[in-house]
Amino acid sequence: MNNLVTTQPRSFADLELVPMQRQVSQSTPLERLLTAVYRQRWVVLAAIITAAVVAALLFMNSERSFTAAASVQFDQLTPRVLGSQDLDPQSAEKDAERFLQTQLDHVGSRSIATSVADRLNIAASPASLKALGVEAANPAQAREAAIDRLQDGVGPTLGLNTRVAQVSFTSGDPYVSARVANGFADALIAANMNSKLQTSERAKAHLMAELAKAKQRLEGSERNMLSYARSADLTTTVVPGGDNKDGGGSLRTQQLGLLNDSLAQATARRVDAQQHWAQVQGTGALALPEVQANQAIQSLVAQKAQLQAALEEDRQRHTDEYPSVRETAAKIQELDSQIGSFASNIKRSVQGRYVAAAQQERQMMQTVAGLRGAAMSERERSVGYNSLSREVETNRAFYDGLLQRYKEVAAASGAAAANVSIIDRAWPPSAPDSPHVGRNMALASLAGLILALFVGSVRERLHKVIRSTEDLEQGFSLPALGVVPRLTGGGDVHSALQDTRSAQAEAYHSIAVALAEQASGVLPKTLLITSSTAAEGKSTSALGIARSLSAMGKRVLLIDADLRRPSSSNLLEETDGPGLAEVLAGTASPDLAIERSSEGFNVIRAGSSTSSPVSLLAADHLKAVLDRLSEDHDTIIIDGPPVMGLADAVLLARSVEAVLVVVEANRTHTSELDLAVSRLPGSNVIGGVITKFDPKTAGVRYGGYDYYKYSDGGNRGRGHGVSGGASLPAPA
């Protein structure tokens, strides 16, 4: 074991500290939560048990209630018995949700509750009043109280994507609950029917009044129209079956229409005759197609041709003076005269047709112009008549529409259909729905758990202490050199340290090795061991580390530097002799103050002096004393006072090579340790040690708290090895 640490030929102050290569697991949020719950397990358990007991007491003292429900269907469009529009306009499909919510609100109205109370005569039924929890001095008060209870107790609910609602009611009697639920369903249907009947009656009365007004307006407009026609002499204005719009059915208008058609035809004939005459006028009569096509002319031309043929034969045998030749020539000349006369007549007939057509057109135009003036005069007089006629038609159409609607309403008023129907009637429930034992106990346990978590969280936040090496390394960036378990089963800690197989002794062996590992095997010449507050185990730690280093073959000097509350008397049999106080005061030399302990290492007691500890420690003589003592020892361990409230530890830290901070597990507050570390020189603090560690109290699982276990026979059993400070926060 002497070979574990080897002194190097260079000093600890010249080395750069190398932190130990540990694997400190980072706890997850879930692990931290479970760890906190485990630490507060008794609070959680007490809160849950208290909540369960309260729930049980409330259950035993609470009254039973029974809920019955009737299923009611709401139809947005009512069944139409007659082929007419419904009187009450229904909402469109997009307003279905609004319509259903309106119906549910109607269920909880006071009018429905009043109807149910009167239908069931609840005020006269003591059993019903008792079930409803109503107490009243007289029937009137009982009725009002029952109505209020019915209105507050009804519970209409509607599921998702359905038109079937559950109308439920809760009371202390299952039969009363069923009667009231069915009463609400029946009252809702009756109210819906009454509403439709009232709507029909109001519609009929309104239509009757409007019909009387419309009839009066129609008769007045007809009288006005006839009076105007008589005064304007428009007796022939309207023709039965004619188009009477804007006077279009008058006799003059019809005549004007016929004459306009005749004028158009005459104009067409005149245009055709004029064009024909224009073509014929400059053409010879015999060249006209009409002449050439005339059968009489064709006959004369044929005769002329025959005579010319005969004339040519006669001229070949006779002269022109020959009688037959002269006779034939005379006939030919007569035929030419007849042909010319016929052609001229045909040409003159074309001109005559043109002249006749033009004359007829002029006459028609004169007649149309005269009739048009008369028609325009009549039309001017019929403007007022047409206006009155349109008013008559409008009033007649309005009257006919109202009359038809009144007939439909009168026919439909006796066949109104409700849009509310009962699907299932309510039945008395076989078991009470409140109080629900399982649900209430579960809710009480949940409430207790929430309360416990809240209280536990508050306690965790208020009790911010160092519990494990993870808190030390992550919260303060201090290397954890080791963990010393709490002494269990009674006994003295010094006795536990003397037992080399104890967990405490093994822990300090591990810390001694870790000290050398901090600087590549070089131990600090002077090591101050301090803590933030008193009674955290710094003196025990100083003693344990001194024992371990001495057992490893090192020359160790333990100095009790707590001049206010010395603890070196526990190590030495004699209580007198010079100590550190006398050495610093100059009344004794360092060599005379050194005493040999029974553990095998040297000790310098605190001593006593009339001077102030601050004045003794603040002098430069302390550094010289430590340098002198370092010549004969491998390391000097200084058991210093706590940091909080005193200046002694800060003064000592300035004169040593290294400072080791002792932290009591589950007691030292983070604020205290933070303040203590901030007061110490940062370059001198090489790490911390967790003392009095109990994994169950801290609520964590620690990798090395069992250390080595030894059997009764002396054989070493395999357990957890010394880990040097690794911790895994988790439920123990």
Architecture overview:
This protein has 732 residues and is of the alpha/beta class. The protein folds into four domains: 37-61 and 435-460; 66-80 and 90-193, no CATH class; 245-415; 472-710, P-loop containing nucleotide triphosphate hydrolases (Rossmann fold, 3-Layer(aba) Sandwich). 55% of the residues lie in helices and 11% in strands. It has helices at 29-39, 41-61, 96-107, 110-120, 126-132, 139-153, 174-231, 251-281, 289-293, 295-317, 323-412, 437-462, 469-476, 493-498, 503-517, 538-551, 580-585, 590-593, 613-618, 621-630, 648-653, 670-679, 695-698, and strands at residues 66-74, 154-158, 164-171, 420-424, 480-485, 526-531, 556-560, 595-596, 602-604, 635-639, 658-664, 685-693, 701-702, 709-710, 716-717, 727-728. The strands form four sheets. Strands 5-12-11-6-10-7-9-8 form an eight-stranded mixed β-sheet, with helices on both faces. Helix 2 runs antiparallel to helix 12 (437-462) and helix 4 (110-120) crosses helix 7 (174-231). The longest helix has 90 residues, at 323-412. The chain is elongated. The two termini are 34 Å apart.
